[in-house]
Design a protein that fits this description.
About 40% of the residues lie in helices and about 15% in strands. α1 links the parallel β1 and β2. The longest helix is centred in the last third of the chain and has 17 residues.
Length: about 290
């Protein structure tokens, strides 16, 4: 196991993704570093802005003294093919959002999976998920789907513009959770009928991608909703869900916990989560 980062060291980190100008990840990791007396640099790396393909940016990081990187939309599945994944569950997810550069080959992790489980527990506690509709089966959707397995969900309805992606996820879930009833739908409004949980794992609602994947009138009867989008936190999807009386789990909570878990991979050091949360919120409100 890699030793802890010494407090005298500098930690060079980065984030590869599209549309990440407003990402709070640089702030989260700098604040975590300050708690531990470590100077952290955290670069935003947008392939299109650099005139490079994702793989070229990734390979550049392996040679430029990065300790690790986070990977976000739409590159998490591509990242999984470039790393060694020791955790069999993460291999089954097939998407990586945290990469550590050490040894002969980068190591891949998925903290979206564990982050969603903590975010769900924070809002819902031990309550069962009930039947769940999930719209979007890309990198974060795959992680959330496997987290639902961990939470004991027995029915999952998948919707994606690309049916092949939904089918691939259904097959992966069947291999690890044969008792889960996984179905593939085309129309989210029909798939929502009778669902207790509603999940958006598409970029719809993100800054630059206005709208909602499910209209408010189709949310009636559900109990809870989660949106993976966190910029902004008050997406139309979650605003509509709250107005319909659902408990809402903000994408900000997933962002927070996946970041905390990623930090532990990067540094092998802990953080004061309450202080980190206050710092992020206070600076965010002042910005």
């Amino acid at each position: 196991m890699t030793s802890k980062v010494d407090s005298s060291e500098r930690l060079k980190l980065g984030l590869i993704g599209d549309n990440i100008a407003r990402s709070k990840s640089p702030l989260l990791h700098r604040l975590a570093g300050q708690q531990n007396g470590i100077e952290v640099t955290y670069d935003r790396l947008v392939p299109i802005d650099l005139g490079l393909e994702f793989e070229e940016v990734f390979n550049r990081c392996t040679h430029e003294n990065y300790r690790g990187i986070n990977v976000t939309y739409p590159y998490k599945e591509r990242a999984a093919s470039l790393v060694r994944i020791d955790n069999p569950l993460v291999r089954a997810i097939g998407a990586v959002n945290t990469v550590i550069f050490e040894g002969d080959m980068p190591h891949g992790h998925n903290t979206d999976y564990s982050g969603f489980m903590e975010a769900y527990g924070l809002v819902r506690g031990p309550k069962a998920t009930g039947s769940v509709l999930m719209i979007g089966t890309g990198g974060v959707g795959r992680a959330v789907a496997f987290a639902l397995v961990g939470l004991g969900a027995l029915e999952l309805r998948l919707v994606d513009r690309d049916p092949a992606k939904a089918e691939a996820l259904a097959e992966a879930l069947e291999a690890v959770a044969p008792d889960m009833n996984v179905s593939i739908w085309v129309d989210p409004s029909k798939a929502a009928v009778g669902a207790k949980g509603l999940i958006n794992c598409t970029p719809v609602g993100m800054v630059g991608h206005d709208g909602t994947p499910l209209q408010r009138e189709y949310m009636q009867g559900a109990e809870w909703a989660f949106d993976a989008v966190y910029t902004p936190t008050d997406t139309q999807f979650l605003t509509d869900a709250a107005a319909a009386g659902l408990s809402v789990i903000s994408g900000w909570e997933l962002f927070f916990y996946q970041g905390v878990h990623a930090w532990k991979h990067f540094s092998k050091l802990r953080v004061d989560e309450a202080a980190l949360r206050r710092g992020l919120l206070d600076i965010g409100e002042a910005a």
